[in-house]
Write a structure and sequence with these properties.
Order of helices and strands: HEEEHEE
Distance between the termini: 65 Å
CATH architecture: Beta Barrel
Helix content: 10-25%
Structural class: alpha+beta
CATH class: Mainly Beta
Radius of gyration: 18 Å
Oligomer: single chain
CATH topology: OB fold (Dihydrolipoamide Acetyltransferase, E2P)
Largest sheet: 5 strands, mixed, barrel
Shape: globular
Length: 112
């Protein structure tokens, strides 16, 4: 009887862990010093260096360059991945970049 009571909890745990795909980071995409960056949509505007699972920037740099992003032509997106601190920088290992659309997500940019 006790096993039957625990079964729903165990099944829920299995489904919850199988669905994990990293964290979600909404922000504005940018290229700084030849590196792909995400400027988070928050008051602090946290900045993340975008890398692939091997620590390379090339894949994401090419994707952002294809968009034609400039300070006058920003794009916002949702980046899925895992962030870690490395010295003074935050490195975001990207699983995917989704919901890419023109414009900035930062409120301050509305008044420029």
């Amino acid at each position: 009887m006790r096993i039957l009571l625990l079964l729903p909890v165990l099944l829920l745990h299995l489904f919850a862990t199988a669905a994990y795909a990293g964290d979600m980071f909404p922000g504005t995409l940018e290229i700084r010093d030849g590196k792909p960056m995400l400027i988070r949509c928050d008051l602090v505007k946290n900045t993340y260096l975008l890398v692939d699972k091997d620590g390379n920037v090339d894949v994401w740099l090419k994707q952002i360059e294809k968009l034609g992003i400039t300070p006058e032509n920003p794009y916002q997106a949702t980046v899925f991945g895992d962030a870690r601190m490395e010295g003074d920088s935050v490195i975001l290992t990207v699983d995917s970049i989704e919901n890419i659309q023109p414009g900035s997500c930062h409120l301050g940019d509305l008044f420029k």
